[in-house]
Specification:
Layout (H helix, E strand, L loop, with lengths): L5 E5 L6 H11 L3 E3 L2 E3 L13 E3 L2 H9 L3 E6 L5 E5 H9 L3 E5 L2 H10 L3 E7 L2 H11 L4 H15 L7 E4 L3 H19 L6
Parallel strand pairs: 1-7, 1-8, 2-7, 3-4, 8-9
Antiparallel strand pairs: 3-6, 5-6
Helix pairs in contact: 1-7, 5-6
This protein binds guanosine-5'-monophosphate (5GP).
Guanosine-5'-monophosphate binds next to strand 5 and strand 6.
Length: about 190
């Protein structure tokens, strides 16, 4: 019997990873998104334990030291984000397929360490990324600039991942993501992963 795949959705900030995952959950049953831990501050409307586990720096460090993270990174402005092993186990124990939404370095770690992980890079062109980040208006102008600079480098790394979905048309990109996920779930049932 082969393991259920773990899906990793990655790509630059503003590419629309969150929106595409929301669409994926509406289209494909039996999927759950792991909730990451972060030290960044809560945005208006975000709920502790829904979008993220919002942790203090000390609490995050305690969990790093305790080996609780599968991976963690320090992202723009030194904020830390990490995938809790307990989230992946909880989702698997519930008999569901786990989806992780991660920046690139974390996605590469999971790709290297989790057998059966399937990475999907979400791409959008730079002016579009910039427009989305400005419309979202959740970061300061300085931080938007920092995220855009990082995005330019990240877009050149798309080839490191198993799939790439271009998010220039939301309907189409959501359908493509759902098709990849359904196909890989079906494949995992019939063949072992390289
Ligand atoms: P945001 O601050 O916009 O919520 O997230 C910033 C970036 O961190 C996004 O690219 C998001 O995918 C990524 N991210 C969220 N959680 C994690 C995590 O647990 N690990 C890693 N490596 N990246 C994460």
């Amino acid at each position: 019997m082969s393991a259920r795949p773990v899906f990793v959705v990655t790509g630059p900030s503003g590419a629309g990873k969150g929106t595409l995952i929301k669409g994926l959950l509406e289209r494909v049953a039996g999927i759950e998104v792991a909730i990451s831990a972060t030290t960044r501050s809560q945005r208006p409307g975000e709920v502790h334990g829904r979008e993220y586990w919002f942790l203090s720096d000390d609490e995050f460090t305690r969990r790093v030291d305790g080996g609780e993270f599968l991976e963690w990174v320090s992202y723009v402005s030194g904020r830390r984000y990490g995938t809790l092993r307990s989230e992946i186990e909880r989702i698997a124990d519930d008999g569901k397929v786990c989806v992780l939404e991660l920046e690139l370095d974390g996605a590469l770690v999971v790709q290297g360490e989790v057998p059966g992980s399937v990475t999907i890079f979400i791409a959008a062109d730079v002016p579009e990324l910039e427009r989305r980040l400005r419309d979202r208006a959740t970061e300061s102008t300085g931080e938007i600039g920092e995220r855009i600079e990082l995005a330019r480098t990240q877009l050149e790394q798309a080839h490191l991942f198993r799939y790439m979905v271009r998010n220039d048309d939301l309907e189409r990109a959501t359908a493509a993501l759902a098709a990849i996920v359904e196909c890989e779930i079906a494949l995992a049932g019939t063949m072992s992963r390289p």
